[in-house]
Amino acid sequence: MAKLKRYEVLGIKLGWSHWCTGCNKEHLIAVEQPFSNGARWTFDGNESAPTFSPSVNIRTGPYPWDPNETDHGCVDVCHYFLRAGVIEYLGDCTHALSGKSVPLPDLP
């Protein structure tokens, strides 16, 4: 199974995506082209045990359109290093894997 998936739009290679066990969803990492906010990472080219640098810091929310969201001031944080195929979640993550390290899972 694959650990990474090529992320491209209209045939233009932008970066890579991987499955995040903490968030239970795919995260995108811009490599060839930066995101609109200028964020961009380096990638060592190893698709089975990848390293991206620097850390990835994803902040999402609030979700005022979500009827299940009760705290509209809430922001979800997923901050991690991905080194040699291991996701090292940092202490500011708001999910259950905060402070833990886990092997990069296969894409579902």
Structure description:
- By secondary structure, this protein is mostly beta strands.
- It has one domain (4-103).
- It has strands at 4-9, 12-20, 25-30, 42-43, 52-60, 76-83, 86-89, 101-103.
- The strands form two sheets. The protein has a five-stranded antiparallel beta sheet with strand order 4-5-6-7-8, with no helix packed on it.
- A hairpin with a 2-residue loop joins strand 1 and strand 2 (12-20).
- The model has no long low-confidence stretch (mean pLDDT 90).
Q: How many domain units? A: 1
Radius of gyration, in angstroms, nearest whole number: 14 Å
Stretches where pLDDT falls below 50 for ≥5 residues? none
| Number of distinct helices | 0
Global morphology:
globular
Described by strand count, sense and barrel closure, the largest sheet is: 5 strands, antiparallel
Helix content: under 10%
Q: Report the β-strand fraction as a percent range.
A: 35-45%
Q: What topology, given as strand order, has the largest sheet? A: 4-5-6-7-8
Structural class of the secondary structure composition?
mainly beta
- Strand tally, please? 8
Topology of this protein?
Blueprint lengths: L3 E6 L2 E9 L4 E6 L11 E2 L8 E9 L15 E8 L2 E4 L11 E3 L5
Antiparallel strand pairs: 1-2, 2-3, 4-5, 5-6, 6-7, 7-8
